[in-house]
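Late entry, evening session. Most of the bench is empty. Finally got around to the prediction I had been postponing all week. Sequence below, unchanged from the version circulated by S.P.
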Amino acid sequence: MDIDARGPRFGAVVTAVVLAVVLVTGSAWLLAWQTLAFLFGAAGGVSRSPYGLLFRKAVRPRLGPPTDFEAPEPPRFAQTVGLLFAGLGLVGYTLGPDWLGLAATGAALAAAFLNAAFGYCLGCELYLLVRRVAVRAE
């Protein structure tokens, strides 16, 4: 079942803000929260992530009906990629080296910002690339 394309973009806006605050403050706790949010999105799909639930309960009822839908698999894969980068960032912020925390969090922020500002989902594009390569390899 396809999902409202505005949901993942809303999640990207919230994610970008959270990750920007992490970079400014160096808060490992806030990055741990974001890592958990990515985990829920990767495990249950973006509609079951904390930001997806917030979108569905508080934002979507205030918007008109959706006109653009997308398959749930690419955004879910993007959440998995985000989980990987946030996890690396968390390791850097808690165990070191500090540059790992900054670099991984910065990379995740860049991807979230591209989705939030321009609707370009790097993780989704990576999903499509992996699928194309997998089909050609068969």
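Two things to note before I forget:
The longest strand covers residues 3-4.
The mean pLDDT is 96.
Will write this up properly tomorrow.
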